[in-house]
Amino acid sequence: MLRPWEFKIIIRPSSRTPVYLQIVHAIIDEIRRGRVEPGRALPGTRELARTLDVNRKTVVQAYDELTAQGWLSTQETKGTFVSLNLPAVGPETPDDPKTKRPRRMPDVPSFRLQGREPKIPVILPMRNRVAFDDGEPDTRLLPVAALARAYRQSLISMARQNALGYGDPRGRIELRQAISTMLNVDRGLTTTADNICMTRGSQMAIFVVARVLAGRGDTVVTETLSYPPARESFISAGADVVAVGLDDHGMRVDELETICRKKRVAAVYVTPHHQFPTTVLMKVERRIRLLSLAAQFGFALVEDDYDHEYHFSHQPMLPLASADPTGRVAYIGSMSKILSPHIRLGYIAGPKALIDRVASEITMIDRQGDPVTELAVAQLIQAGDVHSHTRKVMKIYVERRDAFAKLLTKHFNSDIEFSLPDGGLAFWLRFARTVDVDAMTRAARRIGIDLLPGSHFSNSGVAIQAARLGFARMTTDEIQVATRKLKEAFRSR
Ligand SMILES: Cc1ncc(COP(=O)(O)O)c(C=O)c1O
């Protein structure tokens, strides 16, 4: 029998780790180091409690935990022993001499990570750092009081109705109904709530739709400049992603047709309202051609309408999905640009069978989204708060857009070209051939300003003489500071 004083257990009363867990960790440590070998008897609980000057119940609790984890075994009347079949003991990491616990998790696991890592450029927001993002809203403008009220009400009413358990993977019916009505009234679709599945942001919608529409070896078409997380979602589903060119009117549909004549295309991903990243609107003839190619060659169209609400000078063109009587379009929308990317609400609209399949996929990765948020946002939509917020921010963003355009002309004059975006929250700036935009981005980073160079969006990663610059998240004063810094980076590249 091991004598209690032979154990190296130091109890730290000031530690935030409960005393029984400190005992557990210390005993595991002793076993791992081989100081107490399998089969060895441990001191009785009363004796150890006396030595450590702790309550006996604390030692009993520690022994119970160690037994449950498989480190100890108890034999009735005989006592407690170090288990003969110890849990797997991993390679030792250098210990912290004070606590005897491993200093930190290893950086590299001892198992293999399957597949390739997705190539997705991200700018992480940093305090006091200026960033031209890829077109985010200014969340300082959110109707937070109304949102907070709606959250509170949803949480309380759902708790009272015992409705905070598992629910419909398609999302709360109230929100699906509100989205369905909004799509029918504002965007010309013909949906019911059964044609809508909520997701956590439109990114999840893209990922799930990619899984459902494309399998190993299937061909999926995007544009040469496109939204990297969409491209990567199709690649991770096993698809071969093929890129076609684009011009000032959107996707080169003639190039798509050439591909369709050579191979079977499973799906085409497009952002026709504001092409991502170049911001251009796909013109009507291309839309009609795209839909007829989908019918002729039998591919699915994934229409990502990520910022439909923002159209400054004209009524928005209706989505492809509004002119699709045969159910070829999986239409994806988001609340991120109109409310906030933190409110993770996206949705898929499509034929019921697609929605039901998507819902089954969701049960594997998320189960059911965030029903309290869904109910709260449904209330905001029904009360007209989302509508009035849209009207309010639209005016502000037009001012910011115009201010940014003026500053760009003033500071860059003929060094850049751009078209004033009719909608959306970003500019696509084209630089002269001699400008190394990637080098300029690095120079900008050094002086404290971030931006997204065109190469980030390219399917081949080649240098692109352009950059996408979001303007809406900054006030006009902030835009002024950011543009001056941009000019500094341009000069110093
Ligand atoms: C083109 C495009 N699609 C989808 C998304 C995903 O947005 P969210 O998941 O926040 O709805 C974004 C985000 O910036 C985007 O730019």
Describe the SSE topology.
Blueprint: H1 19-32, H2 45-52, H3 56-69, E1 72-75, E2 79-82, E3 130-131, H4 144-160, H5 173-187, E4 196-199, H6 201-213, E5 219-223, H7 228-236, E6 240-244, E7 246-247, E8 250-251, H8 253-262, E9 265-270, H9 284-297, E10 300-304, E11 329-334, E12 346-349, H10 352-365, H11 371-382, H12 385-412, E13 416-417, E14 426-431, H13 437-446, E15 449-450, E16 452-453, E17 466-470, H14 476-492
Parallel strand pairs: 3-15, 5-6, 5-9, 9-10, 10-11
Antiparallel strand pairs: 1-2, 4-12, 7-8, 11-12, 13-14, 14-17, 16-17
Helix pairs in contact: 1-3, 2-3, 4-11, 5-11, 6-7, 6-10, 8-9, 12-14, 13-14
The structure holds pyridoxal-5'-phosphate.
The site of pyridoxal-5'-phosphate has 13 residues, from helix 6.
